[in-house]
Design a protein that fits this description.
This is Putative dehydrogenase. One of its GO terms (molecular function) is nucleotide binding. The chain has 8 helices and 15 strands. It is an alpha/beta fold. It folds into 2 domains: 123 residues, NAD(P)-binding Rossmann-like Domain (Rossmann fold, 3-Layer(aba) Sandwich), CATH 3.40.50; 188 residues, Dihydrodipicolinate Reductase, domain 2, CATH 3.30.360.10.
């Protein structure tokens, strides 16, 4: 059996601790270091996971970036720090798994992807939902024609926090739903529109070189995506709403596919039915409800497993490649520009 892959986790915050847990529990990974600028997070991680004394805990990436035996890094730091850290990691010939978004700039995403390819390194982005059993099963439903002719889609992603200080609700939340719509439809938007409202953080973000948030960080965002087929998706995002929802649907002329994360018993459902004319009225017909059976698996566990597999065997990373990351970042950037212009359509 091959030796476990040496990996360092950069960032021990809300998402970083999930990466630590998964890599600690994976037989093909050896967590060698955890890096976070906040000492209290490192102390908490040591206690929470009962980390061996051999695991280096440090507040500075420079302390471990040339650590003997290190082969890969997982980056779960604020989005604005991604480019410099990932660029440095690639220069050290490390494979990289990055939390979404890869960066806040599509050009930077493309540059990092090309550099990784040139060095024959894996640069993968943690678009976790693409590994969710409901999204995988939903792709088969939509592309198998079970909904009939597709009409439109909608998604709502709301909760009371967590509120991020580095990006707005659009960049924090929308990437999940956009990735799902793109995957289910098998196409990418050609036009986007977005509007936002700012309440909590009305001042520009310090160090926002991309100038994405000149009016502060939007707590509420309403976005519209238009696809080449004419399909439109409407997305409602808010981290200032105690009505927690994680719901996405695609509507066809024969039924609607609903992915509701808050439903533990039936997260993926086909709600069948259509309208038939009867004189001057339209009558609901063939209404039924089908719960789609799903296999049980933690999406992030699948991400980590796939990352380690690709590091070991150097295969193609279609599910979460740099190309997908660049495409999603381009869409988000266009939505940000639309928000800045009061909701004007932006062509892609």
């Amino acid at each position: 059996m091959s030796q476990p892959i040496g990996i360092a986790i950069l960032g021990a915050g809300r998402w970083g601790v999930h990466l630590i847990r998964n890599f600690l529990n994976h037989p093909q990974a050896r967590v060698m270091a955890v890096v976070d600028p906040h000492q209290e997070r490192l102390t908490s991680a040591r206690s929470q996971f009962n980390l061996d004394e051999s695991v280096i805990l440090t507040t500075n990436w420079q302390d471990i970036k040339q650590l003997p035996g290190l082969e890969a890094v997982a980056v779960a730091t604020p989005a604005a720090t991604h480019y410099a850290l990932i660029s440095d990691a690639l220069d050290q010939n490390y494979h990289v798994l990055a939390e979404k978004p890869l960066t806040l700039d599509p050009a930077e995403c493309q540059e990092l992807s090309q550099r990784a390819q040139q060095r024959q390194l894996q640069l993968l982005v943690d678009h976790t939902y693409l590994f969710h059993p409901a999204v995988i099963a939903g792709t088969e439903v939509v592309q198998g024609g079970r909904l009939g002719e597709l009409r439109y889609g909608y998604a709502t992603r709301t909760h009371l926090g967590p509120v991020r200080p580095d990006v707005d609700a659009l960049w924090d939340l929308a990437i999940h739903d956009i990735a799902i719509f793109n995957t289910w439809l098998g196409e990418s938007p050609i036009q986007v529109q977005g509007t936002g409202r700012v309440w909590l953080q009305p001042t520009p973000v310090v160090g926002d070189d991309s100038k994405l948030f000149p009016q502060g960080l939007s707590d509420l965002v309403m976005a519209t995506l238009t696809y080449p087929s004419g399909f439109q998706a409407f997305i409602h995002l808010c981290w200032f709403n105690p009505d927690k929802q994680r719901r996405l649907a695609v509507v066809g002329d024969q039924g609607t596919l609903i992915f509701d994360e808050m439903s533990q018993d039936a997260p993926l459902v086909i709600q069948g039915g259509y309208l038939e004319p009867e004189g001057d009225r339209w009558i609901p017909t063939a209404q039924n409800r089908e719960v789609v059976r799903l296999e049980k698996a933690e999406p992030l566990g699948r991400v980590c497993d796939r990352f380690l597999e690709l590091v070991r065997h150097q295969g193609p990373a279609d599910e979460f490649s740099g190309a997908i990351a660049t495409e999603l970042t381009t869409i988000l950037s266009a939505l940000s520009h639309s928000i800045q212009q009061g909701g004007l359509p932006v062509q892609l």
